[in-house]
Amino acid sequence: MGKLTNKVVLITGGTTGIGLAAAKLFAAEGAKVTVTGSNPETLAAARQTLAGIADVVASDAGSSADILALAKSFEARGMGVDVLFLNAGVAKFGPIESLDEALFDETFRVNVRGPWLTIKHFAPLLRRGGSIVFNSSINNQLGMAGSSVYAASKAAVRSLVRVAATELAEAGVRVNAVSPGPIETPLYGKLGMSAEVVQGFAKGLIAQIPLRRFGTSEEVAKAALFLASDDSSFMTGEEIVLDGGMTRV
Question: Which of 17, 94, 173, 185 could link 168 by a cystine bridge, Cβ 3.0 to 4.6 Å?
Answer without folding.
Answer: 173
